[in-house]
Amino acid sequence: MILITGGAGYIGAHVALELMNKDEDVLILDNLCNSQRSAIDRISTLAGRRPGFVQGDVRNRHLLDTLLRDYPVDAVVHCAGLKAVGESVHEPLRYYDNNVGGSLTLCQAMAQAGVFTLVFSSSATVYGDCTTMPINESCATGQPTNPYGMSKLMAENIMKSVASSDPRWSIGLLRYFNPIGAHPSGLLGEAPLNQPNNLLPYLLQVASGQREALSVFGTDYATPDGTGVRDYIHIVDLAQGHTCALEALGQRSGVNIWNLGTGRGYSVLELVSAFERVSGVPIPLAFKARRPGDVTCCWADPQKAADELAWRARHSLETMLADAWRWQCNQLQTEWVQQAN
Ligand code: NAD
Ligand code: UFG
């Protein structure tokens, strides 16, 4: 059985579904601070059976001890965490407490229970302002410019220390690039509870008339069209990276770092044009100054994951956007039906 912390969230729910599709038993631990119980129903509908679900906090040591005693957990995928970069600047202690404290408590409980296989949701943000593209795993980690990024780097460092202290540990640090899109069924996707910060969730709300215009942060970057370039990866590809990592960890010990990205960067304006093509919906733009802390370019060298995990991202940008738009339209339809009733 695989325990997924944060398994009701955007990434964790897709990981849960992928694992269940591979006949794994899944137990989800989530405090629902940024997700809803309905995600569990949606996973169940798509998988044809229910994952185990416990509403609770990953910082609750007593709860973790109980779960690891009562369920036959072989490995943990640790997705639980807070992820809003801007918010982390204003509430650093909440971010360190949740993201670093949660990881620490989880590692302590796992060690005590004798569960030593762990996959961690890390982020390309740990590379800081790396200027050599593409970024491979031996690039130095930078000095993240915000508490969110710092909390990911600190959690990584805790896991590295833990792994060097005891050879029984087998840890995968997955450095995600920019996950977007939704499950092709339109039943599972990102459902931000507050105003979105990330490009695609914001764009989707503009496309569906919930917001007036999409701000383009910075038009003077040293890129072909002046806007920032990122490596957008389909959420299903990303989730499959986790199942491959878990499989590979069966034959590996210590800390293993893998980039999960496509290896191809797109600018903000390229992404907007592709969305307009795919959806047929024009997106009003508001050109703004650069957003503090943003890097110019960030895209992955995914070769290590290809060699060691036999994994590669397969979906095109158009598919990511079409799937995201289908999810957004379904969400709106559901809301209208609920309001009409
Ligand atoms: P999300 O907010 O949709 O999911 C996180 C889930 O964790 C939520 O369901 C939330 O309720 C839960 N959670 C938060 N704190 C918890 C706690 N203390 N105990 C139990 N549950 C808790 O976010 P996501 O996009 O699915 O991100 C998952 C992980 O991946 C996060 O750690 C995030 O930092 C990391 N990550 C995300 C991105 C991205 O762009 N989405 C990029 C890099 C890394
Ligand atoms: N952008 C806009 N307008 C918006 C939002 C974003 O122009 O409304 C631009 C940004 O300036 C950037 C690009 O779109 O050039 C992507 O921005 P996102 O906020 O979608 O993503 P980031 O690359 O800033 O960060 C994301 C996650 C981090 C994660 C990182 C990994 O938010 O958690 O990817 O690369 F660490």
TrEMBL record:
Name of the molecule in the record: UDP-glucose 4-epimerase
GO molecular function: UDP-glucose 4-epimerase activity
Subunit structure: Homodimer.
Cofactor (UniProt): NAD(+)
A GO cellular component annotation in the UniProt record: cytosol
Taxonomic classification: Bacteria, Pseudomonadati, Pseudomonadota, Gammaproteobacteria, Pseudomonadales
The entry's keywords: Carbohydrate metabolism, Galactose metabolism, Isomerase, NAD
GO BP, sorted A to Z: galactose metabolic process
Gene name in the database record: galE
